Model the fold of this input.
Amino acid sequence: MSDVVCYCFDVRKDRIVAAIENGCRSVEEVKNLLGVTGNCAGCQPDIEALLEFYGKYPAKS
Ligand code: FES
Done:
């Protein structure tokens, strides 16, 4: 759970999952919140995979 997904901004997987669980539903929304994909964008496929997996669960309202 503590793996770094975005090396440019040192963002770990648990923070991205938390963002998705709190309502982020697109790469753009996660980017706005955490900065991920804003530099080399090499982490974008991983963000998309996490969105696809965790986004299937209803967001907390
Ligand atoms: S690894 Fe995320 S922007 Fe470069």
Remarks:
- Residues 6-9, 36-43 surround FE2/S2 (inorganic) cluster (CB under 6 Å).
- The chain is about 45% helix and 10% strand.
- The helical segments are 13-21, 27-34, 44-54.
